[in-house]
Every structure is written in structure tokens, then in C-alpha cells.
Design goal:
The complex is a heterodimer of chains A (423) and B (289). Chain A has 20 helices and five strands. A five-stranded antiparallel β-sheet of chain A has the order 4-3-2-1-5. With 289 residues, chain B is of the alpha+beta class. Chain B is globular and about 60 Å long. The longest helix of chain B has 17 residues. The chains are: A alpha+beta (423), B alpha+beta (289). Chains A and B meet through strand 4, helix 1, helix 2, helix 3 and helix 4 of A and strand 1, helix 4, helix 5, helix 6 and strand 2 of B.
């Protein structure tokens, strides 16, 4: 039995064998004959359609009731808050909301996620909402009021995120994902209580650096919360640092074999993005991606099953470095490319192609230092070290000339700090 | 077909001219225009038959009445409320965020979900256009297909007439009733003359329904003829309206609430607020019976 349901449409369509049925959210017990002709009239353009494999109508009804309660809870909360709402209507809405929050505790979590995304606008009045509420609803609005400042801080922080952090992915989509994954609520909670050390930065968002945000985001996104949200393609195109937040599988035998390969292959688009950002043409990127996967698959015995992207990225960078070296050698009539190119490959559980280079202390220190750079700074530096012109880097990375120069300066300055002036 | 502005040939499914950038093309309307000859033939045949039955005056009267018809959609109270909440900043702040829970939800691959619909919609509108189509029904009253919800959204004609096309009946049911062979082979044959532009909707309705006219019918009978509710939605008979593009509060002439259906709805707060806001915007419609 399969079901498609939408809280917004307050309806579910069920395919049971060859028969179609509809269940409406306000008449859960009724099973109405249906068919594909109903689809656009039932769901319209609702974006919240969920697809379920279920074994009973009870499951469908439970899922639909929960989805409808979430939607109604949101509408009722907005009615309570809106300054234009009539008093009598506000009271009715508050009473209805109380019923929902009492019987569907998940609805509170949903409301909290949505309302943690942005501070209340001027058209909202918490005072009026609190004036008609009691019980769970009053508790929710009280909490919302207490957290407004923290919500504003987190929102400002998101707005200050440097555009390049998203590497062309729609920042609003990433934000929405973060909201529903509970990341915003966690940030808000952390700001409010200010106990994890790294979150202290959140209170002074103007001083945030890309690397701080990436680090915090990575930690949050890598947490188990990710598991409650279906895997989404939204983050597929993110830059390497962000892609380290992809869901990881536990290091156990179960992830080996087909499942592990399939999981890794899910990063194929991300690999292409990485290779394109390293300056390869689309055709070259395709070839090198395939070569990278072949290499990964032949070393699967060394793969523990965790840190999927990190594992893959090291191999890709190594394959890319070899390709760049080969191209440069050809262009320079046999002249060898600088060792720094190999620094694109941080220490890995996959053996380096040239072990003698890896044994050089200086090279290792340079490698480690470069690996600590902001990923975009790192990429700019490596492309420059590899003889790419500023214009080529601008084209390859899709950022401005001033950004290239700025990032190069930052990378050099940071390298000096990490290695000392003598290097 | 040529672009109306630059006259260079463009695809019938283009929503924007790829050459001069002329916007506001509605492929569903363009396709309907391409079947005008066949529609005219069906219309004239229907009038001929009506004349033979001594009902040609009634048929023309029916056509004129349909000229004042509306596109209507029926939704649940909460969905109507969301729309009527309109441009409110609260709505835009939080509804938009809530709507992104399933940002790219698609039917699971390898399943039959929506397969027929996908096929029909793809054949009717083209793959790139079908996602922009909103479905409605043609009505002479403010009473829509309330089996789908107690709130009938009545479209403001001036906001949809340029981007709406019509089909003889529920398009999916139409193709199902014509046999599943076309679906099995992955192709859908669309007979010509069964769709029209908004401005030619009278011709389509006369072509479809003239044969069911009976002497002595009044406008009330016309309304029932145009939209007949069956025992199940598969038995409903109506003319389907396809509206291309976005939809907002300002696209509406108003909303009529079926109180008998709505009172069964347990959330009085949403209904009460819906009524308040509809009254405020002068959008609460009394049903025309």
C-alpha cells in the first residue's frame, strides 16, 4: 500500500492494490473512492507532498493527522500573533491551538523550528497572543518572546554568511534546510545559553569568519539530527568543507561492499564540482571523476566506512594533482611542477603516489599548513602555484578578480603564520 | 509558430521568446489556439444538430450564458486561509519557511505514483510547462466541486483570461475513459477540438453540451448542466480549466464557503479568521443558486 499526503491540502491519496482512495484530514475515518483524476484538485501546487510505503490505513491516518495538525498549528499561531486579528477570533484560534499542541506534541517542535528562523515582524503582537492563551500555547509564546533576541542574532549571522560559502547553491534553500533540520533552533538555544565555546562567536556575528561558520555548521550538520531529515540534494554542490557534513555511516562492516560504494557514488556531483573548481573542463572533470572512483573502489579494503566525503576528496585531489602535473609537464617540455601541487593531498589513509616526497619534512609541513587554509583560499593558492593566471582562476572559480587577489594574500599571510617567516 | 513580437519561429511550449525575450507566453493557450479550426467545426456541428431538434435558440442562449462563467477551485479552509492571509508580513515570513520542508519532493523513483497524470499533463502542456498549471473547473455559480473542499475560490476573470485554456472535461478521466492502450505505450493521443482558449469557452461548452439541452431549460439548468456532480469524483462532469502561472489573493474575485461542509470542520478559529479577512477585503461571496 502506498500513500501520498499533504498537510497543506489536508488530504491523502492511497493506492491499495489497483484501487485508489482518498482520506480527508477533517474526516479521517472516511475512505472515499479516488483515482489519478483527483490529483491536481486534491494537491494543487502544494509542495509538502510526502510519499509513504505503509501497511495499513491506520498509518496513513496517523501521518495525515500529524501533518494536518502541523499546518493548522502554524495558521492558528499566526492568527494569534497577527495584530489585525479580531479578539474573538484570536480566542477561538488560541483554544484550537491548545487542542492541537496537547494532542500532537510534535507540532510544538515544528512551530519552534519555523519561528526560530526569523524574529517576529512588526505586524505580530506577542502581548495580544499571550492575552488569550493558556497552557502549552502560553508556554510556547512565552518562550518565543524570551528568545527573540537570540533569534535575531542567529538570523543576522546567517545573513552575514559570505556568498561563496554556498558555492552557487541557493542560500535560501540551505537556510530552509537548516531550519527544518533543527539547526536554527539549536543555534538559538546555544546563543541563549552560550555554553558551547564555539557558539560564543555567534554573539558577535560581525566578527565571524568563514572558517568559523563552516566549522560550526559542519559540527551541527554532522550531528545525528541530519538523520531525521531525508537526504536532500541541496548540499550536493557545496564546496569541499561544506560537503564534509554529508551524513556519515558508522564504521562497521555493514557499510562495506555495495552499500558503501553506492553511498560514495552519491557524491559524484560533488566530485564534479570540486574538479571544475580546480580548473578542469567539464570533459576533463568527468574523466578524472571516473578515474577517482575507480581508484577508490580498488582501495575499498582500506575504507572504514566513515568520513565519506573526506575520504573521497583526498583521492580526487590526488588524481587531480597528478593530472595537473602531467599537463604542466607536457606544457613545460618536461619541467617538473612544484612540489606544492602535491600538497593538495592532505595526509590520507590512501598511500600517496610518490612516497619519497611524502617523507620530506618540509613538504609535509607545507602540506599540513595548506590543508589548514580556508578551502577557497587553498584552491586559489594551489591554482596560482600551478601557474594559472589570475584571469584563469577568476574563470575557474567564478569569483571576482579582487576576491582572487584578496584570497591569495590571505592564503600567503596565513601560510607565513603557520610556517614561520623562514618559509 | 512565430513570436508575436520578433516574428521568429519559436516552440509552442516556450514561455518566453528565446530570441527577443518577449515574456508572458502561455503554451497552454497557444496550443488551444492551434485547434481553433477543429473546435469551430465541432461547434457548428452541434448548432446544426440543435437546429434540427428545434433548439438552436436555446443553444445560442446557453453559449451566451457560458460567456459569463467563472473558473473555480475548491480547497480546504486552511488552504483558503493561507491565500487570504495574502501579503501579510507574518505570512510571508513563516509560511514560506514552512513550505520548504520538502523542497524537492518528488514521487519515489520506480513507482507508479502519478504516472498517468504525468503522462496526460506532459502531453497536454509539455514537460516544462505542466508544473506551472493550476487546475480549476468552469462554473456559472460560486458553487464548485466541493467534494475537494468547502471553500470555492472564484477566479477574477481579468486575472486569468489571458492565461487560461479549457479542456472538454477532467483531462485525466477523459484519457482513461478512452482506453489505457495509449498509456501503456507511453503516448497519449490528443483529439483536436476538445480544448479552447478562455475567450472561446462558449464554443467548447456548446460543442460538448448542446446535445443535452432540452426545451424549457433555464439558466439554473444551464449551471447544473455545465457542472454535474456524480456519486464519486470520477462521475463528476465539468469543463476543466488550466491556468498557467502563479496565483495569489489578488487573482480572486472572492471565496464562497459551503457552510454545511465547513461546520464539520473542527477548527473554528481558522474559519472565523477566514471569514473576517474575506469580509475585510470584500471577498466573501454569497453562493448564487
Amino acid at each position: 500500500m502506498k500513500a501520498a499526503l499533504s498537510g497543506r491540502a489536508a488530504a491523502a491519496l492511497v493506492i491499495d492494490g489497483d484501487a485508489w482512495y482518498r482520506i480527508d484530514g477533517d474526516r479521517l475515518e472516511e475512505l472515499k473512492p479516488s483515482g489519478p483524476h483527483e490529483w491536481p484538485y486534491v494537491f494543487g501546487l502544494c509542495q509538502d507532498v510526502q510519499y509513504l510505503d505503509v501497511v495499513s490505513y491506520t498509518e496513513v491516518r496517523a501521518a495525515l493527522a500529524a501533518a494536518v495538525d502541523q499546518e493548522h498549528a502554524l495558521s492558528l499561531a499566526l492568527i494569534c500573533l497577527d495584530t489585525e486579528t479580531r479578539s474573538e477570533t484570536r480566542q477561538l484560534a488560541a483554544d484550537d491551538l491548545e487542542k492541537i499542541l496537547t494532542r500532537t506534541p510534535d507540532a510544538i517542535e515544528f512551530l519552534w523550528k519555523v519561528f526560530s528562523s526569523k524574529p517576529l515582524p512588526s505586524t505580530a503582537s506577542l502581548e495580544r497572543a499571550l492575552g488569550v492563551t493558556r497552557g502549552a500555547v502560553q508556554g510556547f509564546f512565552d518562550r518565543l518572546g524570551d528568545h527573540q533576541e537570540a533569534i535575531a542574532v542567529v538570523r543576522r549571522a546567517w545573513e552575514l554568511l559570505p556568498e561563496e560559502i554556498f558555492s552557487g547553491v541557493n542560500a535560501d534553500e540551505v537556510f530552509s534546510f537548516a531550519v527544518h533540520a533543527g539547526i536554527c533552533t539549536d543555534f538559538v538555544g546555544a546563543v541563549r545559553h552560550s555554553h558551547p565555546a564555539q557558539i560564543a562567536d555567534v554573539e558577535i556575528p560581525g566578527q565571524w569568519r568563514s572558517s568559523d561558520i563552516r566549522r560550526i555548521l559542519s559540527e551541527w550538520l554532522a550531528s545525528t539530527r541530519w538523520n531525521v531529515v531525508p537526504e536532500t540534494p541541496i548540499l550536493r554542490g557545496l564546496s569541499p568543507d561544506e560537503t564534509t557534513v554529508y551524513p556519515t555511516t558508522r564504521a562497521n562492516e555493514a557499510v562495506r561492499g555495495t552499500e558503501a560504494l553506492e553511498n560514495l557514488y552519491g557524491y559524484y556531483p560533488g566530485v564534479l564540482v570540486l574538479l571544475r573548481r580546480l580548473g578542469f573542463s567539464p570533459d576533463e572533470a568527468e574523466d578524472l571523476a571516473q578515474e577517482s572512483f575507480v581508484r577508490v573502489f580498488t582501495h575499498m579494503k582500506d575504507y572504514r566506512g566513515d568520513a565519506q566525503w573526506a575520504y573521497l576528496e583526498k583521492t580526487v585531489r590526488r588524481v587531480a594533482a597528478n593530472a595537473i602535473r602531467a599537463k604542466s609537464a607536457a606544457r613545460r617540455h618536461g619541467e617538473t611542477v612544484s612540489d606544492e601541487v602535491l600538497a593538495t593531498v592532505p595526509d590520507s589513509n590512501v598511500p600517496l603516489p610518490d612516497a619519497s616526497l611524502a617523507q620530506t619534512d618540509v613538504v609535509n609541513r607545507v602540506r599540513e599548513a595548506i590543508a589548514q587554509l580556508d578551502p577557497i583560499d587553498q584552491t586559489v593558492l594551489l591554482l596560482r602555484l600551478n601557474g594559472r593566471s589570475y584571469d584563469e582562476i577568476v574563470e575557474a572559480l567564478g569569483i571576482s578578480m579582487s576576491a582572487v587577489k584578496s584570497r591569495l594574500n590571505t592564503a600567503r599571510r596565513r601560510l607565513k603564520e603557520l610556517l614561520g617567516e623562514d618559509h | 509558430m512565430p513570436c508575436e513580437r520578433c516574428t521568429i519561429e519559436i516552440s509552442v511550449v516556450a514561455m518566453q521568446c528565446p530570441h527577443c525575450g518577449s515574456p508572458g507566453l502561455y503554451p497552454n493557450v497557444v496550443r488551444a489556439k492551434l485547434e481553433l479550426v477543429e473546435l469551430q467545426q465541432r461547434y457548428e456541428n452541434a448548432l446544426t444538430l440543435a437546429h434540427a431538434a428545434g433548439l438552436d435558440v436555446l443553444a445560442r442562449q446557453f453559449g451566451e450564458t457560458v460567456g459569463g462563467s467563472y473558473a473555480v477551485m475548491c480547497v480546504k479552509a486552511n488552504e483558503a486561509h493561507r491565500l487570504v492571509f495574502g501579503d501579510n508580513e507574518l505570512r510571508s515570513t513563516y509560511y514560506a519557511t514552512a513550505d520548504t520542508r520538502f523542497p524537492r519532493a518528488q514521487p519515489p523513483t520506480g513507482t507508479d505514483w502519478n504516472a498517468i497524470r504525468e503522462l496526460v499533463d506532459g502531453a497536454l502542456f509539455g514537460e516544462a510547462v505542466k508544473q506551472h498549471i493550476r487546475f480549476a473547473a468552469l462554473a456559472l455559480t460560486f458553487d464548485g466541486l466541493t467534494a475537494y473542499g468547502p471553500c470555492t475560490l472564484v477566479c477574477e476573470t481579468s486575472m486569468v483570461e489571458h492565461r487560461a485554456s479549457l479542456f472538454e472535461r477532467n483531462s485525466c478521466q477523459f484519457f482513461i475513459d478512452r482506453g489505457g492502450i495509449a498509456f501503456a505505450t507511453g503516448t497519449v493521443e490528443i483529439p483536436k477540438g476538445f480544448r479552447s482558449t478562455w475567450f472561446d469557452r462558449s464554443k467548447l461548452c456548446v460543442a460538448k453540451l448542446a446535445g443535452r439541452l432540452e426545451s424549457g431549460m433555464t439558466e439554473t439548468n444551464f449551471a447544473d448542466l455545465l457542472m454535474m456532480r456524480g456519486a464519486t469524483t470520477a462521475d463528476d462532469e465539468y469543463v476543466e480549466v488550466h491556468i498557467c502561472g502563479p496565483f495569489s489573493l489578488r487573482s480572486l474575485k472572492g471565496v464562497a464557503i459551503d457552510e454545511s461542509a465547513a461546520t464539520a470542520f473542527e477548527f473554528g478559529g481558522i474559519l472565523a479568521d477566514l471569514r473576517d479577512r474575506l469580509k475585510k477585503h470584500a471577498l466573501l461571496l454569497e453562493k448564487i443558486v
